[in-house]
């Protein structure tokens, strides 16, 4: 099947479709050339980091990011105030890394999904349909993530 159609089916953006699709095609091309690990800047990944992953249906990765970075950072800030300044600097550094590297997790999920579907030996139309259902975006996950974030922060500040 045509690689561009497969990426298009997987990304599934409706707004700014051409711009977004071109960005991901370039990102996945860089991933192909570099063996799956490349740098490509995304403001959405920089500002939203774990929410970006949830939006792109990388649920396990997004939840892991949240737990590791935010919960650990919050724990250190609350119980080790001497390290609080370092947590802020580390958060900025991790944010910068996220802005350039989180797309690699989306790319790896795309490759994994593609491999699983190809192993089923389905027709091109069915392959495209399955990639659409596996990929795409999930705005509800972002909303739930934001609610969980504020709930956890409220509970931890008590």
> How much strand?
under 5%
SS summary, helix count: 9
Cα separation of the termini: 55 Å
N to C succession of SSEs:
HHHHHHHHH
Strand count, sense and barrel status of the largest sheet are: none
Give a count of the beta strands, DSSP E runs of length 2 or more: 0
Radius of gyration, Cα only, in angstroms?
A: 18 Å
Unreliable segments of 5+ consecutive residues = none
Domains, number: 1
Helix content: over 70%
Q: Provide the structure class.
A: mainly alpha
Query: Mean pLDDT score, rounded?
Result: 87
Which descriptor suits the 3D outline? elongated
Write the layout of secondary structure elements.
Layout: H1 3-11, H2 17-34, H3 43-48, H4 50-55, H5 59-79, H6 84-101, H7 103-119, H8 124-134, H9 139-156
Helix pairs in contact: 1-2, 1-8, 5-6, 7-8
Could you write a compact summary of the structure shown?
The chain contains nine helices and no strands. By secondary structure, it is mainly alpha-helical. The model has no long low-confidence stretch (mean pLDDT 87).
Describe this structure in words.
- The protein has one domain.
- The chain has 158 residues and is an all-alpha fold.
- It contains 9 helices and no strands.
- The radius of gyration is 18 Å and the shape is elongated.
- The longest helix is centred in the middle third of the chain and has 21 residues.
- The model has no long low-confidence stretch (mean pLDDT 87).
